[in-house]
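Key idea: predict the complex, not the pieces.
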Amino acid sequence: MRIEIDPELVEHYIMKLGTFGAYGDTGVWRVVYSPEWVGAMDQYAAWCGDAGLTVRRDTVGNLWGVLKGTEGGKSIVSGSHMDTQRPGGRYDGALGALAGLIAIGALKKQFGTPKRTLEAVAFCEEESSRFPTTNFWGSSAIVGRIKPGAAETIKGYADETVADAMRSVGLDPARIGESRRDDIDTFLELHVEQGPILEHGGYPVAVVDAITGIRHKKVTLKGVQNHAGAFPMDLRKDPMAGFAEIASGLIDNAHRMGRPAVTTIGRIAVDPNFPSVVPGNVEFVVDARHPNEAVRQEMYARHDAFMRGVAARRGLDITIEQLLDHAACPSDPGLVKLLHRAAEKQGVRVFQMASGAGHDSQQMAAIAKVAMIFVRSKDGRSHTQEEFSSIEDIVQGIRVLAAGMHELAY
Amino acid sequence: MRIEIDPELVEHYIMKLGTFGAYGDTGVWRVVYSPEWVGAMDQYAAWCGDAGLTVRRDTVGNLWGVLKGTEGGKSIVSGSHMDTQRPGGRYDGALGALAGLIAIGALKKQFGTPKRTLEAVAFCEEESSRFPTTNFWGSSAIVGRIKPGAAETIKGYADETVADAMRSVGLDPARIGESRRDDIDTFLELHVEQGPILEHGGYPVAVVDAITGIRHKKVTLKGVQNHAGAFPMDLRKDPMAGFAEIASGLIDNAHRMGRPAVTTIGRIAVDPNFPSVVPGNVEFVVDARHPNEAVRQEMYARHDAFMRGVAARRGLDITIEQLLDHAACPSDPGLVKLLHRAAEKQGVRVFQMASGAGHDSQQMAAIAKVAMIFVRSKDGRSHTQEEFSSIEDIVQGIRVLAAGMHELAY
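Result:
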C-alpha cells in the first residue's frame, strides 16, 4: 500500500525549523542549549503534539514524540539531531528529526494506532560545534556513555562548561544518567547523504549498510626554524616540506585505494607561520575513514609507515597522537533487507552504500538494531549553508522510512 | 698593521644592548619606537660619546655617531638596524650597529683623526616586526624612499599608525623627508650570516658579493569545501591536496636548482581549518630568492608554471598576487676587493658568498657604494633567541670592517 507523505507539510517544517538560528540566506547556526536551539526544540514539540504524539523531554535535552502501540514491548524509533554546524544548512540532522515525526504522523493518520510503540526523536547534540568533545552528546546519554561529572569538566569554544550551558536552559547535569534507555528495539535514521554519490548515480535515496570507521590522528612534525633566505635548501629540516610530502602521499594513498576509502587533511597549524621563516613546527590532523575494518587498519598502517618514512628521511621529529577512533558500524542486515523491501513496495529506486560520515546511529547501535536512509544531496554539499536536498527526494526518503516502520510496527 | 679590537668591550656591548627588550634567556624583543628601543638607542648614543663620536639623531629616528675627517667630502658609513624580530636574538642588526661604532672607536684610538669622515649608524627599523610593511624604514628614509604621508597610513599589528608610534617617542612624522642624505660615499654593513654556510665551510667571516633578489607571492587556491567522510576522493576539488603538491614541487624545484636558490613556504591559512572538512580555500605565501637576476626570473617562471599546472589539473581556481619584489643587489666590486685585501692584511680567512637575506645595504645602494661582511652564525640560526655568534668570530669580522674603513678613510 502506498504511503502518502505531504510534500507541502515537509517543506513547511524544513523552512520553519530553519528560521531558528537562521544564518545568511539559507544557513543555520544552532548549537546545543542555545536560545535558537530552545526555539527549535519547542517548535518540534508543538509539531509532535499536532501529530498526536505524546511529548517527553529527557534529562540531557533530547525530545521524544511517542505513539504508544497496543502490544507494548520495545520501541521502534526514528530521528536525528537538532544542532548544526557553525553555520550548517537546514537539512543535516534537522531533516532526520523531522522525518521521524512526519513518518509516524503519516502512519497514524493512514493506519491508526500501531501494535508496537513508535517514537520520533530529536537528539540535542551531535556536531560538537559548541563543545569540541561532545559529539553524539544526545545519543551518548541514551546509551549510557556519558561519564558522571563529564558535563562539569567539558569546556566549549567560548570557555563555558556543558553543565553551565545545560543549567542555562533548565536542565540538571547531575541527572544526565536518567536519559539512559534499554527499551528501544530498532533505530532508523534518515539523513542527507552529505556526498555526491547518489547524485552521480542518479538515485534519490540510499539504504545505508554501514557507517564508516574513522580515526583522527594529530601529527606534529618538528624541524628547525630558520631564515628563509640565508639557509640553503640542502641543509634545511623544513617541517612544511615534510608536511607537503606527507599530505600528498596520504591523499594519493586513499585515492588509489578507491572508494569508499577517504583521507582528509583539513586542519594545519604552522609555527611561527611567517612568510620569511622556515617553520619550526607543523601540526596537522589526518582524518582517515573506511567502513571495512580490515581495509581501514591496512590504510592506517600504510599512512603511518609513509609519514614515519618521510620524517626520517627529512630529519624531522614526528609524533603521532590518536585523537579519535570509531570502529565501522554495520547496519543490521535484517533492517537493510526490510528497507529494500519497503522501497520496492513504495516504488522508490534505492542505492546501497556506506556512510562516510559519523551519525548518532553508531551510538544507538549499542542498545538497538540500526539502519539508515540517505537522501540525495545537491552537489554533495554539507556543513555549509549551500546544503540542499529537493522536497521530492526527501518525500521519497520519508516514504521508505515510513514503510519500513509500518512493516515493523503494524 | 694589525687593528686591535677589544673582545671584552665587544662582549660587554652585545650583552648590555641585549638587556633592552630582553626576552627569555637569550632573546630580544625590541620593535621600533618602543620603550626598549628608546633605551637601546640612548645606550648607543652614550657609547658613541664614549668613543669620541658626535651624536646626531635624524628625523626618522636613525642615530649617527660622526667622526669628522680632516679633508671633508662624502662619508664612509657603517652600521645596521636596532630593531629585532618578536623575539629575535642579540645579534641580528644590533651587532652591525655596534660593529660600526666599535670599528670607528678603535680606528680613532689607534690612528687618530681620519682624512675622510667616518660615521657609525643605528638604523631605527629594518625587520617590519611592528608594522607589516615598514621594512627598511630607517634606511628607506635616508635614501628618500618614504612617500610623504606614508607614516600616517601604515598600520601596525596592534593597529596603531607609524606616525602615532613616532610621536610617542618625540619624532614628527611630517619631517621624515629631512632624513634624506646625499653625502654618503660608502656604506659597509656587518651582519650575522643567519645561515650555516660559513659554519659548514669552516670560515669565521665572509665578504658578501651580492644580496639576493626576493619575491613574495600570495597564492590562493579555491576548491570546493566538503564533508571529509561523505565526499569520495575522486570527486574532490581539495585545495589542501593542491597546496601539498605545489609546496612539494616548488621546494624540490629550488633544491634541484642548487645553492643559492631558495624557496620557502612559511605561511599558510586554511579556511575553515577544521579536521573533518575538506577545505574550501588555502592561501599561502611563496618566498623565492636568487642573487642572479636571470636565474631568479627563470625560477619564478618554473614556479608559476608548476602552480598553474597543478591547479588546472585539480580543478582549483588559482590567484597569484605579488606582495613584494626586490631585485638582487650586487656589492660594489671595488669594495669587495678592498675587503678581501683588508682581511688578508689582518690575517682573517674569509669566504665570499651572497646574502640570502635582505639588508639595509640594499636601500643604501641607491645613494652609496655598498658591501657587507658576514660573521659566522652558530647552527645557522637567526630570527630566534637561539641565534649566536662567538666573540672570537665577531672580533675577526670587526677587524676586517675596521681595516677596510682604514684603507678608505686614512
